[in-house]
């Protein structure tokens, strides 16, 4: 089981390393919001979900997609704008989704998927389903009215929903101190009828797994929402494939290594007795999968010209 988690973490990391290597060739036209550094959250919140659960993500969503599907053919096809991509080559990196695997929605509009997630939790309640909904969003979302309306509605109706704030402290280049009229999200939701345990180190995959397992139990037993904040460090610029230390709005932390969720999980496995060769074998498989999918994606067909306005409602 632990190796299955490792495989997911590594798949997310290796896919994004491939994007970073390929992007300068300008064949991938979609903007990319990389979530390197966030792997522990993407895997931790999706790994142990009960059957029938639904996840609503957002534009920084490579990890959620890869953790929930494990597939890379349609993923890379989408990034290369090919017709066999997850969105027929039209959605790009901000709209990776797989409804058939429970990843229902993604959007480039900040906050937009939170109310849809809340609606899905209401549908579950109507249907008498014990499944949970997970709404994953960035730390700018609690500055949007839509978040508070959704939270209010979910608390009022006792919905089984887990709100997960993937907190990197930044909205593009702007720190929370310049945006928020409140302190922490956990404190701010204190008056609502929901559970809001203290925030979690999102680069510690095991901590996220444990917190989400606890949140699932809580929302199922008490029929109240749970609000989790998972802190992590965004490695690259807000959008694009470069590091941006030189721009001056943030600096590289001293405890850099401790913030790497993949390295931390590797250490956990080594401590558990997994051999370095065992880890290398997983890495070899993942690298091969990524290389093959990349090759196939670049050979894929672009959408036909006469399909230009398919899916456009006028
Ligand atoms: C409604 C809306 N307002 C503004 C924007 C412009 N915008 C794009 S990303 C972003 C920052 C969001 O930050 P956060 O929610 O913390 O997510 P992160 O990018 O850090 O993962 C903003 C303001 C937008 N896309 N949608
Ligand atoms: Mg942020």
Draw up the topology in text.
Elements: H1 2-22, H2 39-46, E1 54-56, H3 62-69, H4 73-79, E2 103-105, H5 112-127, E3 133-138, H6 145-156, E4 161-167, E5 170-171, E6 174-175, H7 185-188, E7 200-201, H8 205-222, E8 226-231, H9 261-271, H10 276-299
Parallel strand pairs: 1-2, 1-3, 3-4, 4-8, 7-8
Antiparallel strand pairs: 5-6
Helix pairs in contact: 1-2, 1-3, 1-9, 1-10, 2-3, 2-8, 4-10, 5-6
The chain binds thiamine diphosphate and magnesium ion (MG).
Detailed description of the structure:
There is one protein chain. This protein is an alpha/beta fold and 314 residues long. It has helices at residues 2-22, 39-46, 62-69, 73-79, 112-127, 145-156, 185-188, 205-222, 261-271, 276-299, and strands spanning 54-56, 103-105, 133-138, 161-167, 170-171, 174-175, 200-201, 226-231. The chain is globular and about 55 Å long. The strands form 2 sheets. Strands 2-1-3-4-8-7 form a 6-stranded parallel sheet, with helices on both faces. A two-stranded antiparallel ribbon has the order 5-6. The longest helix is centred in the C-terminal third of the chain and has 24 residues, at 276-299. Helix 1 packs across helix 2 (39-46), helix 1 crosses helix 10 (276-299) and helix 2 packs parallel to helix 8. The structure holds thiamine diphosphate and magnesium ion (MG). Thiamine diphosphate (TPP) binds at residues 60, 108-110, 138-141, 168, 170-172, 238.
């Amino acid at each position: 089981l632990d190796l299955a988690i490792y495989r997911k973490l590594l798949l997310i990391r290796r896919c994004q390393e491939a994007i970073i290597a390929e992007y300068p060739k300008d064949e991938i036209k979609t903007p990319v919001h990389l979530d390197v550094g966030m792997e522990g959250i993407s895997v931790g919140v999706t790994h142990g979900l009960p059957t029938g659960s639904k996840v609503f993500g957002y534009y920084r969503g490579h990890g959620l997609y890869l953790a929930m599907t494990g597939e890379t053919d349609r993923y890379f096809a989408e990034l290369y704008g090919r017709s066999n991509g997850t969105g027929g080559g039209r959605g790009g990196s901000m709209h990776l989704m797989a409804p058939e695997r429970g990843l229902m929605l993604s959007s480039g509009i900040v906050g937009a998927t939170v109310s849809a997630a809340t609606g899905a939790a209401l549908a579950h309640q109507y249907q008498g389903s014990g499944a949970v909904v997970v709404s994953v969003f960035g730390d700018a979302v609690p500055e949007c009215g839509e978040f508070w309306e959704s939270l209010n509605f979910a608390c009022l109706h006792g919905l089984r929903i887990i709100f997960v704030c993937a907190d990197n402290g930044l909205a593009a280049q702007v720190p929370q101190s310049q945006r928020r009229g409140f302190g922490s999200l956990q404190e701010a939701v204190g008056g609502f009828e929901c559970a809001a345990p203290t925030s979690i180190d999102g680069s510690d995959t095991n901590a996220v797994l444990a917190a989400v397992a606890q949140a699932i139990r809580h929302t199922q037993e008490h029929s109240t929402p749970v609000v989790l904040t998972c802190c992590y460090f965004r490695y690259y610029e807000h959008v694009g494939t470069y590091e941006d230390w030189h721009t001056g709005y943030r600096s590289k932390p001293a405890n850099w290594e401790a913030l790497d969720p993949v390295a931390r999980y590797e250490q956990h496995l080594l401590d558990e007795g997994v051999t370095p060769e065992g880890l290398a074998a997983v890495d070899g498989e993942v690298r091969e999968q990524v290389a093959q999918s990349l090759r196939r994606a670049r050979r894929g067909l672009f959408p036909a010209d006469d399909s230009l306005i398919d899916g456009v409602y006028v």
